[in-house]
Amino acid sequence: MKENVLKDKSYVLAIEIVMLCKKLAMENKEYALFNQLLKSGTSIGANIREAEFAQSKADFINKMSISLKEAAETEYWIMLLRDTLYISADTSRKMLELVIEIIKILISTVKNSKNPSI
């Protein structure tokens, strides 16, 4: 069940990030910064999807761990864009709440998956 919630939330976040980056591109904002957000923010869900078809428990943990790293990076880029005034606090708030939820679920998923009794 958690994986479905995780897939859904990561997909929603990816859509929000793509739309934000599209808007920033149309406004001729600094491409290098939001390109980093686009890469990390869309990678979260892609790795979660890959984990669905993991070849082993270790492969699953690895893909989910990569998603967790990408989520942490995404949080960083959102905060940086907010704090350098490329995006507003209101714009960043919803995305930060979502990415933090995703991080919490990923931490739990990775931790539980490492439990040898599972």
Q: Radius of gyration from the CA trace?
A: 15 Å
Tell me the name of the CATH class.
Mainly Alpha
CA-based shape: elongated
Q: Which range best describes the helical content: under 10%, 10-25%, 25-40%, 40-55%, 55-70% or over 70%?
A: over 70%
Major beta-sheet overview:
none
Order of helices and strands: HHHH
* Overall mean pLDDT: 92
Count up the helices. Answer: 4
Count of discrete structural domains: 1
Instruction: Find the CATH topology.
Output: de novo design (two linked rop proteins)
Which structural category do the helix and sheet elements fall into? mainly alpha
Share of β-strand residues: under 5%
How many beta strands in the DSSP annotation?
A: 0
CATH superfamily: 23S rRNA-intervening sequence
- Can you tell me the CATH architecture? Up-down Bundle
Assembly state of the chains shown: single chain
Architecture overview:
With 118 residues, this protein is mostly helical. It has one domain: 23S rRNA-intervening sequence (de novo design (two linked rop proteins)), CATH 1.20.1440. 84% of the residues lie in helices and 0% in strands. It has helices spanning 2-26, 31-52, 57-83, 89-113. The model has no long low-confidence stretch (mean pLDDT 92).
What is this structure, in a nutshell?
The chain is mostly helical. It has four helices and no strands.
Q: Which features would summarize this protein structure in a list?
A:
118 residues, de novo design (two linked rop proteins), mainly alpha
Q: What is the topological layout?
A:
Blueprint: H1 2-26, H2 31-52, H3 57-83, H4 89-113
